[in-house]
Write a structure and sequence with these properties.
The structure holds three protein chains of three kinds. By secondary structure, chain A is of the alpha+beta class. Helices cover 41% and strands 17% of the residues of chain A. Among the domains of chain A are: 57 residues, no CATH class; 174 residues, Cytochrome-c3 Hydrogenase, chain B (Orthogonal Bundle). Chain A has a five-stranded antiparallel beta sheet with strand order 3-2-1-15-16, with helices on one face. In chain A, strands 8-7-6-11 form a four-stranded mixed beta sheet, with helices on one face. In chain A, strands 12-13-14 form a three-stranded antiparallel beta sheet. Chain B has twelve helices and ten strands. Chain B has three domains: 140 residues, 3-Layer(aba) Sandwich (Rossmann fold), CATH 3.40.50; 42 residues, no CATH class; 113 residues, no CATH class. In chain B, the strands form three sheets. Chain B has a six-stranded parallel beta sheet, with helices on both faces. Chain B is α/β, with parallel strands linked by helices. In chain C, strands 2-1-3-4 form a four-stranded parallel beta sheet, with helices on both faces. In chain C, helix 3 links the parallel strand 3 and strand 4. The chains are: A alpha+beta, B alpha/beta, C alpha/beta. Chains in contact: A-B, B-C. Chains A and B meet through strand 3, helix 1, helix 6, strand 9 and strand 14 of A and helix 1, helix 6 and helix 9 of B. Bound molecules: iron/sulfur cluster (SF4) (3 copies) and FE2/S2 (inorganic) cluster. FE2/S2 (inorganic) cluster binds next to helix 3 of chain C.
């Protein structure tokens, strides 16, 4: 049996490794996606005062610190049994929309666009953000950087620290918004909406009008028949900050809809001896291995799954795009992994529109930022949608609010099994006897993976000139017999 | 890249151990200055962005890399292997960020040990179903072959507990402007401070930069948790009775947490000549407690929850005691 | 032979050291486990000193200063008292028995009290057994 090792996978947020085994016919027998890393926040958050956790857990990920900050903030509210005042909730959501805008822009232009705008088989040296700029113009490149920076500025304004935000405190937020700041954000939000529309247009003109690309999306070896998870509001519309978690099956039928505190009834995690990252699955269906279909509890929690799991978007322009996407892709739910990029742009538009709504809400400059904590602290769950999937923080404390136990299911972790399967499927579809495994093939495998925007894949990996991947072919003794490298 | 500069470019590497990625993002956040960086340096290794593998680094001649920014703590055998490899290949090894400087947030794991950590994560977490008590293995035989994983260590270590470090650039993550200053000093050949120095931070403490109102003689009768007070947004946290690590922390971050109305938690590490940041903070706090009565003092001290986790939030592995004992 | 603890004692120059000295010159017998370190005032004992003593192998640390009100520098012993409470709380959280660190007031004339204290503290630490800080540290390096 031959073996292909990709170690480490570069251009990844965190550490990762892919092992591909080929059988004697040269077909892919199996593929393992290993995460060799563990830090153990679940353990070392014990003993800390619960209000400190919102600042500690941001260090789970420096790419999406805002998500952990929100999950932790909500869990701490729940521990004390309080609901922050309306102004505080709106400020949190406003911050969070800026966090989404920033992340989704970076992902689309730096990671996704090179494959589509420049082309999946274009020379690697062009398949990067510079190549994208070459295709769509320098002004666009500048605009991308500018919009991303503006989104970051909004976050820093409310969050203090530019990376590891300090906004939340149990019962509310630490800082309000002035009228001047509010007006400024309104203008910025309008800019985001324009930019989102513009981005959708690029997608329309470059991707959707190209049959080859549409084929890759719909017919490439990237589809998995999975359950879809996402947070929804009381009208079953997509919501990032709050609501219930809804899961729909492969046909789009509701499998379950649960409140954050009930998550354990619906989601369980499995341990495999070859990875430090666990594998969540739907508990009521059970773990049936790395397989898709209605009998397998494997689900995904991604921009696409969120759209699948909802009945629409809560803002008008995004709703139009939502309908259009499902119409073109043949109805809900969509199982084409690569449609995630499109879904992400629909979400970008939603986040921008929602940001504007919030900035125009008179309550946003209110002065009531916190409620007093009077209840005895006990236990609480906070769930938000991270860019990369549903994020669950669950804390238990003693009567002083000192943390006794912590459980966290991170956005990307939800997709661990799905990522393994997408990669395997892509590899199986692309690596065949007689097919030369060249760098184009490797990129196509990687595309299956990139769609998830896995958190170990930093959305800002956009240094010019490199789209890295190396594959070693090994014989049974582990000797490298051939090495394919793309740079 | 092929640019014909008078000054030879330096070879720059960036690597992460047990890290969150925030340090790498802080490098990317140089925005426009990225062009200055790329003009002055060839990036020869950076897993987050470049396709250069471990074996490529192994093949580099010793001292090939001029500067390595190493972020993240040393938590497992892979981190340690890479730290040693990069030390050999690098002229100036910089501990970049709190994790490699002092152990950082992952270093809080030194309050516990390997077994209880793995047990919590893989057996006891409420959503985990693991009746067979499966644990990730350093070597595991699947039907197609053997898969391996790095060994998870009992203790989190700082970079300089594993290899010799030339400079420390503190912060979680370092403020990007500070990085650019240090980087420019290196590439322009400016005279560097003696090896072992902290660079990219101030000599003075956070309090020195902080604009909150403070008196010279702080007195504390009662300690509060941050949510217990109505912060006025203006008065020094310590004077409001909320513990802020400002007095025991170097300046340089731009008091960014305090600007968000949160007290400092010490990610920039201790001021010059202080070996143990928590000890320094304890000494500062003791001076402020406003009582001479043993019982009253004991009662006031009792109000401080989790002193070890607070005073050593970012620095446990680099502290004098380093970890809990059983 | 039973466990012989290593004890480090920080004594302030003006009262406690003189007291200990008195015990010595009066040929009072007391536990030989105590290594005395003289400091100008108990208020000069930084937490770092205490932590270093444990790290280098002390099984117990005994701090002595002037009685309240008698400190040569007025406030030094109060400052020491506050640090002491904080340190006790800290070492306890680090998994050590907080009684390994104690603070007592000894005046210049209390030679006998010092000798008794030295004996009783040594006995107490002997009962607690060896402090593992140094051992743990050695496995780390
Ligand atoms: S120092 Fe902070 S930002 Fe850098 S890797 Fe560690 S946790 Fe992340
Ligand atoms: S203790 Fe904190 S709030 Fe007070 S002056 Fe220092 S840094 Fe500012
Ligand atoms: S205020 Fe303190 S904790 Fe916050 S970034 Fe600055 S040094 Fe770090
Ligand atoms: S001089 Fe003895 S305690 Fe100050």
């Amino acid at each position: 049996m031959k073996r292909i090792t990709i170690d480490p996978i570069t251009r990844l947020e965190g550490h990762g490794r892919i092992e591909i085994f080929l059988n004697d016919d040269g077909d892919v027998e199996n593929l393992y996606f290993q995460v060799p890393e563990l830090r153990g926040f679940e353990k070392f958050c014990e003993g800390r005062p619960v209000e400190e956790l919102s600042q500690i857990v941001t260090k789970i990920c420096g790419v999406c610190p805002g998500c952990h900050h929100m999950g932790a903030g909500k869990a701490a509210d729940a521990v004390y049994g309080v609901t922050p005042p309306p102004t505080a909730l709106k400020l949190r959501e406003l911050f969070y929309m800026a966090h989404f805008v920033h992340s989704h822009i970076a992902h689309f232009y730096a990671l996704a666009a090179p494959d589509f705008v420049v082309g999946p088989k274009a020379p690697a040296a062009e398949r990067n953000i510079l190549g994208v700029i070459g295709k769509v113009g320098v002004e666009v490149g500048t605009e991308v950087l500018k919009q991303r920076r503006i989104a970051q500025e909004i976050q820093a304004l409310l969050g203090g620290h530019q990376t590891h935000v300090v906004m939340n405190i149990p019962g509310g937020v630490r800082k309000g918004l002035t009228e001047d700041e509010r007006r400024d954000i309104v203008e910025k939000a309008k800019g985001f909406i324009e930019f989102s529309k513009f981005s959708l247009n690029i997608f329309n003109n470059v991707v959707l009008s190209n049959n080859e690309y549409v084929d890759i999306i719909l017919k490439g070896p990237y589809s998995l028949n999975l359950y879809s998870m996402g947070l929804v509001d009381e009208n079953n519309k997509v919501n990032f900050y709050d609501g219930k978690v809804r899961v729909v099956d492969q046909e789009g039928k509701e499998h379950c809809k649960y409140s954050p505190e009930d998550y354990m009834e619906y989601v369980a995690e499995r341990v495999e001896p070859w990875s430090y990252l666990k594998f969540p699955y739907l508990k009521k269906i059970g773990w049936k291995g790395f397989v898709d279909g209605v009998d397998s509890g494997v689900y995904h929690a991604t921009p696409l799954s969120r759209l699948n799991a909802s009945d629409g978007m809560a803002t008008p322009l995004a709703q139009v795009e939502y309908e259009k996407m499902f119409e073109i892709l043949g109805g809900k739910p969509v199982h084409a992994t690569l449609a995630m990029h499109w879904a992400r742009l629909v979400e970008l538009l939603y986040a921008s529109e929602r940001l504007l709504e919030l900035a125009e809400d008179p309550e946003i400059t209110g002065r009531e930022l916190r409620v007093k904590l009077e209840n005895k602290p006990t236990e609480g769950v906070g769930i938000v949608e991270a860019q990369r999937g549903t994020l669950t923080h669950h804390y238990w404390t003693d009567e002083k609010g000192i943390v006794t136990k912590v459980n966290i299911i991170v956005g990307t972790t939800n997709n661990n099994a799905a990522i393994c399967m997408s990669l395997k499927k892509a590899a199986q579809g692309l690596i065949k006897k007689g097919v030369d495994v060249d760098e184009g093939i490797l990129n196509m495998i990687e595309m299956g993976f990139r769609a998830y925007d896995p958190c170990f894949s930093c959305a800002t990996h956009n240094l010019p000139g490199k789209m890295p991947l190396i594959v070693n072919f090994r014989d049974l003794n582990g000797e490298v017999i051939r090495s394919v490298k793309r740079d | 890249m092929g640019n014909e500069e008078k000054k030879p470019k330096i070879n720059l590497a960036i690597y992460w151990g047990a890290a969150c990625g925030g340090c790498c993002v802080s490098v990317l956040d140089v925005h426009e200055s990225l062009f200055d960086v790329v003009a002055a340096a060839d990036l020869v290794f950076w897993p987050i962005a470049l396709d250069i593998k471990y074996k490529d680094v192994e093949a580099m001649p010793d001292g090939f890399i001029d500067v390595t920014l190493f972020n993240g703590a040393v938590r497992n055998s892979e981190n340690e292997y890479m730290a040693k490899l990069l030390r050999k290949k690098t002229k100036i090894l910089v501990a970049y960020g709190s994790c490699s400087h002092m152990g950082g947030i992952p270093g809080l794991a030194n309050f516990s040990d390997k077994e209880s950590l793995l047990q919590r994560v893989f057996d006891d977490t409420e959503s985990t179903e693991n009746p067979k008590k499966i644990r990730p293995q350093t070597e595991y035989e699947v039907k197609e072959g053997v898969l391996d994983l790095p060994e998870f260590y009992n203790d989190v270590k700082t970079l300089d507990q594993v290899v010799n470090v030339d400079y420390y650039l503190p912060g979680c993550p370092p403020q990007t402007e500070r990085l650019v200053e240090v980087f420019m000093a290196i590439v322009t050949g400016a005279e560097l401070p003696p090896p072992g120095s902290v660079v990219g931070a101030l000599v003075k403490s956070q309090c020195d930069e902080c604009e909150r109102k403070k008196s010279d003689n702080k007195k504390i009768n009662k300690f509060y948790r941050p949510w217990e007070i109505e912060d006025d947004g203006e008065t020094c946290f310590l004077e409001q009775g909320v513990i802020c690590l400002g007095p025991a922390t170097r300046g340089g971050c731009g008091v960014r947490c305090i600007k968000g109305n949160a007290p400092c938690r010490g990610c920039y590490g201790p001021p010059p000549d202080v070996i143990d940041p928590g000890a320094k903070m304890m000494s500062a706090i003791a001076t402020m407690i406003d009582s001479d009565d043993p019982e009253e003092i004991a009662a006031i001290v009792e109000q401080i929850d989790d002193p070890a986790g607070l005073f050593y939030r970012f620095s446990l592995p680099s502290s004098i005691l380093r970890r809990t004992i059983k | 032979m039973s466990f012989q603890p290593t004890i480090v004692s920080f004594l302030c120059n003006w009262c406690s050291y003189t007291g200990a000295d008195l015990a010595g010159t009066s040929r009072m017998k007391y536990a030989s486990n105590i290594r005395i370190i003289r400091v100008m005032c108990s208020g000069r004992i930084e937490p770092t000193f205490v932590l270093k003593a444990f790290r280098e192998g002390a099984d117990g640390v005994l701090i002595c200063g002037c009685h309240p009100g008698d400190c040569h520098y007025h406030e030094g012993n109060y400052k020491c008292l506050r640090r002491f409470h904080l340190l006790q709380k800290y070492i306890k959280q680090m998994g050590m028995d907080e009684d390994r660190l104690q603070l007592k007031w000894i005046s210049a004339s209390e030679g006998k009290q010092f000798a008794e204290l030295a004996d009783s503290f040594t006995e107490e630490i002997r009962n607690l057994g060896p402090c593992k800080v140094k051992e743990v540290m050695e496995t780390l390096t």
